[in-house]
């Protein structure tokens, strides 16, 4: 056992001894001072120019709408107190116009001039939501407009579009019977 202990101790002793190999020291070279180098600036992303928003044309919708609503209100086939759905004005003019203001002007003129009653805004929006229609979009297809009016149990629907170019726009309106789909009245007026 002493022999094994002696062998193990000598292995540990020899393993712990570093072998002595002399290496020449590394040569020292003098350095010449240089001018300080500026750190590189981080590359900044290019500044994005915010595009100018399109100019929205200010239109006097009341002056444009009221003559049409007066003309429509004297149509022979209209019943007093009947329910009317006013579709959002559709812009086919290619320019930027405030169609929401036009739609509101139509509703206001109908409530002031005509014997018809308009469907309340909240009822219209909930019906659009129930039918899966967007609240802002005009109903491009007459069948979709009539379907919405039938859902609301309205008697008539008024569909309006703005056509033409910048200085020569025209608003067109069509009043349709919900039950038959017949066009009862249509009118056109220059947008002022």
Describe this structure in words.
GO terms for molecular function: enzyme regulator activity. Keywords: Cell outer membrane, Cell shape, Lipoprotein, Membrane, Palmitate, Peptidoglycan synthesis, Signal. Strands 1, 2, 3, 4, 5 and 6 form a 6-stranded mixed sheet that branches. Helices cover 33% and strands 19% of the residues. The model has no long low-confidence stretch (mean pLDDT 81). It has a domain at 61-191: Rossmann fold (3-Layer(aba) Sandwich), CATH 3.40.50. The longest helix has 15 residues, at 2-16. Helix 2 (61-73) packs across helix 3. The protein has 192 residues and is an alpha/beta fold. The protein is built from 5 helices and 6 strands. Strand 5 (168-177) and strand 6 form a beta hairpin.
List the main descriptive attributes of the protein structure presented here.
elongated; six-stranded mixed beta sheet; alpha/beta; 192 residues; Rossmann fold; 6 strands; single chain
Summarize the structure.
The protein has five helices and six strands, in the order ααββαβααβββ.
The portion of residues forming beta strands comes to: 15-25%
- CATH topology category name of the domain at 61-191: Rossmann fold
Class based on secondary structure composition and strand pairing: alpha/beta
Work out the radius of gyration.
41 Å
Q: What sort of overall outline do the alpha carbons produce when their principal axes are compared?
A: elongated
Work out the helicity level.
25-40%
- The CATH superfamily of the domain at 61-191 turns out to be ABC-type transport auxiliary lipoprotein component
How many beta-strand runs?
6
